[in-house]
């Protein structure tokens, strides 16, 4: 047996015994279990990183060695029906859910080296690597095939997505797009204007880019915000843009708001325009907007059934510090309580579990349900049961939760020890049983 001491950089340590015929990966798993800390990278006393495929003998480990364990932060991204988990700067991505929507990344797994970030359309993923290149997988028509523009995808800084297309901002401020041409994958009409791009936002089928001079260029489906000609003269000194499925809302430097796109999705803010002054931030469901003003109050517009009418809870909406949106709104207040409104069947009514929503740290949403992480790391869910609103079968495992992410119909939670718990629609990522071994080896 080989006996080693593994110590976290935070000071916690564990003494571990392991057969000398074991692999480094076996040692790392034992260290994670002993220390209660997931996604560890092991470093020898000589400063060498121990590689998982190696045998512990080949790695030069000896009885009594002292190892350092560096905790890596895991990240989750979600398409409409699949999840992708990775550690920043590490090799490989673990995916599960609908294989046609990015749940199967086996064809590109060898290319996924030193992943920095992952973004998703409804049916595909795009990963930015450390060298600034991009690897894609999933439905080829909806962004999973970037071969036509691969030679342009160099020095990529950010990637954004509509439902069916990607847009990458390069280091020089230009933009490269691919995927469904009608959903923003074709920038030919505006390509010469896309210079010095600072930010990009997306509706379901259109993009809007804020340029360095504060103006906005839009492209994609005209009705869904791809045509901003009617308000272009007003879009000056734009600070940020938010989007529903079919409309954009831009906050200007003076705190006012300009909207365009489908009126029923929030593209028409005329009824509340006089209230939209000193706006600090804007959030959106699929068809409604909510603006937080400097005084902490909230103004809403768009489809009244899905969050555009907050009159029933308006008196509670003060000092909002965080939002989550699906078909309804959930607002976390400064005191850690939560206020919800919108479609009552899909999370807009949280009365049944309101007493549990105390000291809430984060809220995430599928299309029809919410999940709140409480201060102690437990999770409370509500909304449509089949799409993540019912977490009863996994509730006992939801302890020391670090983060939660959502596809359209399922949730995934990363725990402190590195394990992953999923629930909701099994075909949309709610069942990760098939990749549990891969998740442990991350």
What's the CATH topology name of one domain?
Methylamine Dehydrogenase, Chain H
Average per-residue pLDDT, rounded, comes to 93
**CATH homologous superfamily heading of one domain:** Regulator of chromosome condensation 1/beta-lactamase-inhibitor protein II
Q: What is the global morphology? A: globular
Structural class: mainly beta
What does this structure look like?
The chain is globular, with a radius of gyration of 23 Å. With 442 residues, it is mainly beta. It has two helices and 31 strands. Among the domains are: 2-71, Ubiquitin-like (UB roll); 74-186, Regulator of chromosome condensation 1/beta-lactamase-inhibitor protein II (Methylamine Dehydrogenase, Chain H, 7 Propeller), CATH 2.130.10.30; 319-442, Regulator of chromosome condensation 1/beta-lactamase-inhibitor protein II (Methylamine Dehydrogenase, Chain H). The mean pLDDT is 93. The protein has a four-stranded mixed sheet with strand order 2-1-4-3, with helices on one face. The chain has a three-stranded antiparallel sheet with strand order 5-6-7, with no helix packed on it.
